[in-house]
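From the shared-data thread, chain only:
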Amino acid sequence: MSLTSWSAELCDALGLELEVDIDAILDLARDAAHQVERPAAPLTTFLVGYAAGLRGGSAAAISDCVDIGTRLAASHGPIPPLLPEN
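Structure, as tokens:
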């Protein structure tokens, strides 16, 4: 199943009339996972979606919240590699 199909099916099941910018959501999840830590990806996308919903759920609200999440994740910089223990 493609992400587009899954997104449409999930939106329908949730009663949402929404066109999802899958690339923006995946980019946000990637940035959170790489700049903060892996578990930040689903948490970040949930919180951004929740905030966008509270702001009315318009395309502009979604875009603004995604931008906020992306900028905040980017401000944390890349995660340093783990150093081997001696």
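The radius of gyration is 15 Å.
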